[in-house]
Write a structure and sequence with these properties.
- Pfam families: JmjC_2, WHD_RIOX1.
- Its cofactor is Fe(2+).
- By secondary structure, the chain is of the alpha+beta class.
- Helix content is 29%, strand content 23%.
- The chain has a seven-stranded antiparallel β-sheet with strand order 2-1-3-4-10-5-8.
- A hairpin with a 2-residue loop joins β12 (298-303) and β13 (306-311).
- It is flat, with a radius of gyration of 27 Å.
- The relative contact order is 0.10.
Amino acid sequence: KVQSLTLGEEVTISKCDKNKKRIDLHQAGESLTLKQYTGALDDGASVRFLCPQTHHDTLWATLSILEEKFGAMVGANLYITPAGAQGFAPHWDDIEAFVIQLEGRKRWRVYNCPTGDLPRFSSTSDLSEGDLGEPILDTVLEPGDLLFMPRGFVHQAETVSSAPSVHVTLSTAQQNAWGDMLELALPEAIASVIDQSVAARRSLPPDYLSYMGVVHSDSNDHRRALFRASLKMHLSQVVEQAVEMIDAVADQMAKRYISDKLPPVLTTDEEARTSQGEVSPEEINGNSLLRVVRKDAARLVIEDGVAVVYHTMDNARTHHGAALRPLEFPLKDAPAIGCLLEAHETPVAVHTLPHPPCEDVETKVSIAAALFQEGFLALEEADP
């Protein structure tokens, strides 16, 4: 199957000059031609294919499995670099990287990050040899070798085989640190404290600028200690509130993860037992046994007093290639939905779903059928 690849979006072409500065050689927006591809390699440039899982089913399946294991989005890039060439200048990335050598041989030199461990963002400019120091790892990858680089380690690589090097880099853990959770938690916690605490809404002392600020940082004015004590009191309330809200914050992290994830790869048998295969939602009844096809395929969150289900079945194989289509239910349906989404290894019978106070089977069937329609539930068998 012939597929068009867009330069700048799905594929890039680059090389390093004699000073090891990266030069991009592609014209963004154009479609890659075979002539451009072969010409780039002949010219000593490296060709990088972004999101190759879009076109390669086995890689898609691999990334999907790893996402479930890591609990974070996993991406991929494929690199083809001709003999004796280096496509990228020394740099560091904001992800955990797994480099898998497929063809040819490539020399990798890895260095400590000059800005400290675990930088939050990728380097914004090329690094010079003078910035690097001595490598902590200098090795050649052969076909079948794997190199793991934690976030932030500076690296550069060049092909040392007579044939082109081909490797794929799998990446994960981008913006999935404690600091990212704090960024979500603290604004909500601050807003809650302001809403609930009269003390937090009181005006600042009218003269606080006369003793607070950098210009007064060396002052022994006793009011500075009182001001700092008041600030610590307010911050302690914020921390306490953030801890109380942590489950809601975790749900927001989960929502981000669901948005980032690949759609799951189902086996032929699994697909046949979902709405994507041979089973219609109309076939669901109180005796139906259902299970979720993957434990992280869907997530229930409570938003503005409504039970909302986010799922990955409509996600694209490219990052954020499709918008989420959440389902909304009355809050009273949440226990039944939660029970279904927890049924991963062991299926659950629809009539046993919790739905207090009435425990109406028809309502339970309606909830199950609506979720089954989305494709992330599989029908196992009829409960005898």
